[in-house]
Amino acid sequence: MTNDKLSRRQALGLGVAALAFPAAPAALAQPAVGRAMPREFNLTLSHVTANITGRRRPAMAINGQIPGPALRFREGEEVVINVANRLREHTSIHWHGLILPSGQDGVPGISDGFQGIDAGSTHQYRFPLVQAGTYWYHSHSGLQEQSGIYGSIVIDPATPEPFGYDRDYIIQLSDWTDETPSHVIANLKRDPGYYNYNKRTLASLVGELRRAPDGAARSAIVSDRIMWGDMRMDPTDIEDVGGYTYLVNGHTPAQNFTAVFRPGETVRLRFINSGAMSHFDVRVPGLEMTVVQAHGNNVRPVTVDEFRIAPAETFDVLVRPRDGRQYQVLAESMGRQGFAQFSLATQEGLPALPLPPHRPRPVLTMADMGMNYGPKGLDRGTPMPEVDAPGHVAPMDMGGMDHSAMPMPAGGSQGMQHGAAGGMNHGSMAGMDHSSMAGMDHSAMPGMNHAAMSGMDHSGMQGMDHSSMAGMNHGNMPGMNHGAAGAGAMAGMDHGAMGHGGMGHGGMAMPDPLVNDVGAPPGARVLSYRDLRAARPLYPVREPTRIIEIRLTGNMERYFWSINGNSFSQAQPIQLHLGERARFRFVNETMMNHPMHLHGMWMMPQVGNGAENPLLHTVNIKPGSTVDVDIEADAPGGWAFHCHMLYHMETGMMRKVSVVSAPRTAAAR
Fold first, then answer.
1. Can you say whether residue 271 is alpha, beta or left, with left for phi > 0 and alpha for psi between -120 and 50 degrees?
2. Is residue 450 part of a domain?
3. Could you say which residues form the signal peptide (predicted)?
4. Are residues 72 and 188 in the same domain?
5. Contact yes or no for 643/654 (Cβ under 8 A)
6. What CA–CA distances, in Å, run from 31 to 51, 65, 133, 145, 619?
7. Which residues contact 449 (CB under 8 A, 6 or more apart)?
8. CA distance 551 to 628
């Protein structure tokens, strides 16, 4: 192996037993002082010309490389990182997933006292490392991340990990476009389907009609086309941006990055999705994977055949190739537009194995639309009431729909909300108790019929307004108890136990909000958040102090994205009280996936594992679904909260979260 190859692989995070701490790349200067002193690193951001696809294009780099150098730290030490901005514009670096003081988090105008790094200046970050695991860093200014300002972080643990391995590789996935990011947004603003290369056309309609078995099927096909046309949406629009070249550690599929192993060794693969807009479905034909870490935190080992990794997520897996054959690791984009890939092999320099055909491209259905959510009045965590911006709410009125035949499996997160269920029929819910729903406002549900709700107790529903519950029939709703629902629009109500995950629209089953349909063959083990159990729970189980509604909204036709109907420029901060446990109820009103990232604090999706619910820094919310996520507000200061689809964040799907001291009670005064 040449010295050039060695330094390149060390920069990508190779570590075997003899290389527990790979030598830092030459660009990362370290002081010749005792280990008690902070270790110091230097990062320089600059404009470069990159040739990724055979065309020379302008890009941005860290220390002259894309991705930037791997930073390898050790838990418990303090680090100093000097970031020199040689760009012609303002910049910043955010340390994704690290628990640190707000002022070191690196988000201009949100992190306490941080306004970014001016062109020509150098900023010094300094913070202790209170955790171990796999993380990454990237610019939090404009669209620089897409242009090449990102890199990986590995923090080695202070104590031995509960699993062993012989080799250790960082696998940093990303998506590259030869277009400038500003042109990408301009194209989406002009035509939201600009990059949808699989649009349904008149020719495809003719083909569908010819294949239809009878007149009823042909009528259904035409009706479906008309419905989607009326919404100005396309069920094949799975990913906003296409034309990407997918990279592994900066390598194209043809360049075939290779992770070398000896037969019988255990290899640790640290997957990081640094893609700006791409979800990847990962599999290794011929090998199973054991997931041992999620988002930097150890989990109880779970063996899978495949997993989906959303933008900003990290998963560490162990693989154990027993023979000397070459394995091709495939990371297929969710929209089936291409592969990121690399080889596991006993030697470098082997050509990539032939790629398999793409799995069928997913197609959205009306079930992915969820419900007509409308204003619900749940706590939104802001000091003042919010007013939805026109054009940001769900694009389809589903009033009059009959949900009477919906199956209701036990467990799981809910797939539907009750707040504005126009025309909803709940069939058989007799015995419903609304005794604590004083002051509830059903103003969006005209004409509700309670006639068949035998045994229902409305004794505490003073002032309730049913004026707009159109056509709602609760029929016989046996045993249902809304007694804990608070004022407003059922604030504080936990729908999790109601098991709405499988509820459908008419004959369509609503997708399970936590299950990833990757197109795997029957019997394949596909990772979901439910499979993740924290190896060492950080927080005890306790009830949230309040439920904060986080509706994911936007307008694909005009290409802007928002939270609770308000873009970042229009919105107030979400205010949490230091020491409280808040529950964010994510309601995705759109037909896009949204990986939601909260800086500075862990998110705990309520997946039924109690104290062992996983600790995640990013939670992917599927189209039309609702997921409850608890947050322990233990980090004072200002924190960014946003969708990690870069162009969604840039066009408005972002908030500031302020963690402030709890208000003093009268007794405390």
1. beta
2. no
3. 1-29
4. no
5. yes
6. 34, 23, 24, 29, 38
7. 471, 472, 473, 474
8. 12
Domain end call among 111, 131, 160: 160
Examine the domain organization and report whether 149 and 173 are in the same domain: no
* In a domain? residue 645: yes
Does residue 644 share a domain with residue 584?
A: yes
Backbone angles phi, psi at 207, to 5 degrees: -65, -40
Report the distance separating Cα 492 and Cα 356, nearest Å.
48
What is the domain-level CATH number for residue 276? 2.60.40.420
Q: Is there a single domain that holds both residue 305 and residue 387? A: no
Sheet holding 594-598, edge to edge: 574-577, 654-660, 637-643, 594-598, 618-621
The 10 Å CB-count burial string (b at 16+, else e) for 30-41 is eeeeeeeebbbb
pTM of the entire predicted model: 0.77
Position 197 scores a pLDDT of 57
Question: Exposed, middle or buried by CB within 10 Å (0-12, 13-18, 19+), for 537?
Answer: middle
CB neighbourhood size of 144 (10 A):
22
Structure tokens at 252: 């194209």
Which segments in the chain show pLDDT lower than 70? Answer: 1-36, 194, 196-209, 221-238, 363-377, 393-511, 665-669
The predicted pLDDT at position 228 comes to 52
82 and 129 co-located in one domain: yes
Q: What's the start-to-end Cα distance of the chain, in Å?
A: 70
- Residue 74 pairs with which residues in a beta bridge? 156
Q: Do residues 127 and 42 both lie within one domain? A: yes
Looking at the structure of the chain, the number of domains it has is: 3
Q: Where do we find the tokens 């098991």?
A: 499
Check: CB of residue 569 under 8 Å from CB of residue 650. no
Amino acid at 585: R
Helix pair 202-211, 215-231: axis angle to 10 deg: 150
Q: How far apart are CA 542 and CA 549, in angstroms?
A: 19
User: What secondary structure does DSSP assign to 345-377, as a single string?
Assistant: ESSS-PPPPPPPPPPPPP---GGGG--------
Q: List beta partners, residue 549.
A: 585
Largest Cα span, the chain? 81
Task: Please tell me the predicted confidence (pLDDT) of residue 215.
Answer: 78
- Distance, in Å, from the CA atom of 430 to the CA atom of 433, rounded to the nearest integer, reads 9
In a domain, 387, yes or no: yes
Pairwise CA distance, residues 350 & 603, whole Å: 41
Q: Which domain holds residue 242?
A: 164-199+234-363
Give which of 581, 602, 553 is closest to 296, Cα–Cα.
602
**Residue 599 and residue 540 in one domain:** yes
Residue 221 has what pLDDT?
58
For residue 460, give both structure tokens. 């505490």
| Ramachandran class of 422: left when φ > 0, alpha when ψ lies in -120 to 50, beta otherwise | beta
Q: Do both 146 and 173 map to the same domain?
A: no
Q: In terms of DSSP H, where are the helices of 126-177?
A: 144-147
Q: How far apart are CA 291 and CA 297, in angstroms?
A: 11
Nearest to 546 by CA among 501, 590, 504, 576: 576
